[in-house]
Amino acid sequence: MEFINKFFAKYSQEQITSWFKKISVAEAISWVLLFSAMIWIRYDREGLLPTIYIIIIGNIHGLFFSLYLLLLYPARKIYDWDDEDTVFALIAAFFPFATIWVEKKLAHFNREE
After folding, report:
1. Which of 8, 9, 51, 66 has minimal Cβ neighbours within 10 Å of its Cβ?
2. pTM to 2 decimal places
C-alpha cells in the first residue's frame, strides 16, 4: 500500500476524486458494452467480428476495473470511509452498475442525508 500512497501523493485530492468518479462511471458503461458483446457472440458464435469486439471490450473493461480498484485506496482516505464502506465499494466492483451507486451515494464528503 505504500507504493499506492507514494504514487498518488503528487496529485491533489480534487484530481483523485475526479478520476474516481469518472472511472466509476466508465466501469459501469464498460459493463453495458461487455453485455452487448456477450449477447452478440451468443447469436453469432462463428463470426470474427463478435470475437474481436468481445476481446477489445473485455480488455477495456479490465482496464477500468483495475483502475477502479487502484483508486479505492486513495478514495478511502479522502472520503474518510470506514471498513464497511470500503468493503462495500470493493464488492461493488464485481456487480454490474454498482460502481455508479458508489459514485453517487458513497463518494461524497458530507453523507449525512
Report:
1. 9
2. 0.85
Residues 6+ apart with CB under 8 A from 61: 27, 30, 31, 33, 34
Amino acid, res. 36: S
CA-to-CA distance for 68 and 83, rounded, in angstroms? 17
What residues contact residue 38 under an 8 Å CB cut-off, 6+ apart? 54
pLDDT in tens, the chain (113 residues): 788 878 888 888 899 999 999 999 999 999 999 998 888 888 887 888 888 998 999 999 999 999 999 999 999 888 888 899 899 999 999 998 899 988 888 877 665 55
Cell 483502475 -> residue: 67
For 12, 71, 78, 83, the CA distances from 103, given in Å and listed in that order, are: 18, 12, 13, 17
